[in-house]
User: Fold this.
Amino acid sequence: MNNFGILRTIAWRNLWRNPKRTLITLIVVTVGLWSILAFSMLLNAWAESSRQNALGLLIGQGQIHAAGYMDDPNIDHLMPPPDGALRDVLDSDGVAHWVARLQLPGVVQSEYKTLPITILGVDPAGEREISLVPDKIVEGRYLNGLDDDAVIIGANLAKRLKTTLGRRIILMSTGADGYLEEYSFDIVGIFDADQGFEDSYVFTGRSLLQEYMGLDDEIAQISFVLPDESGLPAMIDTLKAAAPDLDIRDWKQVSVMAAAMNSAMKSIIYIWLGIMIIMMSIGIINTQLMAVFERTQEFGLIRAIGLKPRMVLWLVTLESALLMAVGMVLGVILAVLTYFGFQGGLDLSGFSRAMEAIGSGQVLYPQFAPADFVIYPVLIWVIGVLVALWPAYRAQKISPVEAMRHAT
Assistant:
């Protein structure tokens, strides 16, 4: 222990005998760790924003459908509204909000154009608790009730149809009798979401749509959210037990794209982590090897006065360990300051089109993951110490005779 204390003191002093080289290595390590942690916070924010945006429009944290509806979403695969055990579970404290919808494939027609569309009959009051659509109205108003005979459409769909607020459009879909039903509706609201969503959906009152399609109270889906998403797997099992004949899925099964995007963010972080580790390893090895070559006489001298080879190995390794430790601390401090600096959100509204294309919100809020601030620094420190073993091994092999030859 005494030897270790002495070596530690010598190692720390040796670092500052060449401050320029030490500072360069320190900057590489600090900036490398900071970039990993900052990138991780940003990508986690992006992933969470994209996920919340996707789930908040229609998906929720889970959905319930009649068997076969997901494979063939038409009027032949509807279900009655929830009752009995299913209704009891949905109304329990384990579910924060739920809403029933009638979703049918159809066609929308204006004076100038006809386009395929998905018609959604909704409960406006329930949608306000679970969906972001009511908050995305940019012109006009949202629907007033279950029997509201108006529609709201997306901004890009209105542009494609060459129509606008206050005009009438015709919605067509297959009714319960198997015949094509068509009705005209006034456009009372225009919403702004991502372009794909705007082009895909038209909203009207659920009761009115049921009446027009010749249905009683049949619905196509139930979307729900929980107070705590960690309880989602258990809730899915509970719902399946309450309604074994229905198709009950969590959001990852309903929206494979949203789940894939969420997973891709972690992969990108790991790729960046690998790149930075390689760059830092190269920098550390080069710097330490140069230091070893420049200090050949020094290592020969300390060997001549009796320091054992393994003590030289420990000395050089300790120098790298201390340097990496200082870099880790500075990198973590910079990352924490970055987090607090952007707690109010990173406004990317200037890139609204790009953010819309990737399904993300225009303001990203950095996601602080305490585990990242422990795992990544420790991992990089360990790897940094390991790659420093090669220069340390070279240093321990330097003999007094070799040092004398180097001097001449």
